[in-house]
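Give me structure tokens for this 215-residue protein.
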Amino acid sequence: MRSYLVNDTPQKYEVVLRQQEELFNALIKAKQIDEASEESKDEYCILCVHDPVYTIGKRTVEDNFLLNMQSLPAPIYKTNRGGEVTFHGHDQWVGYPIFDLEQHGIGLKHHIERLEEAIIFVLSHYGINSHRSDKGAGIWVGNSKICAIGVRASRYVTMHGFALNVNTDLSYYNAIVPCGIRNASVTSMQDQLGQEIDMLEVSQWIIHAMDKLYP
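Here you go.
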């Protein structure tokens, strides 16, 4: 069984991180207690909006901050996900699937690919032509990144996930090299379509895509 925990009220990053970690650890514990059972375990996908924050992954280097750390327009939070520095903020859907990949018969690489496919599906509904890139995980529109992806897994249980720019204030990205990729820009659904997008409608398309790709 899968539950979607959807909240469009901006939340502090550390609060949702604690929620993620609790669900992540509970799913790992459930697997350890009942390893012999083939019965599916409860999975969750948090869909939320954060107060403005820069999160850094395991490989982040200081050169990817373009301003002095004390001059940044939002605080920094260090995480245990893969990937480089990125931004989370208002009008951006951040998805945290806490899934057991063994239940879906896939590994981490295929999990990332399915997340990418889900975002491509959502964007296609709005007429936005998006694609993967050899620059790394995530989804692009031309040479502009619209969705960042960074995940972590243990015992095939996942946490962290994706950040899709919907009506996001892109000026926050001026302070960083997003995902450590130079000579590229960022975009949003609003930027692409020239109008504000209904956030809750986008969340429903995300849920539809996740259910389709993780049956």
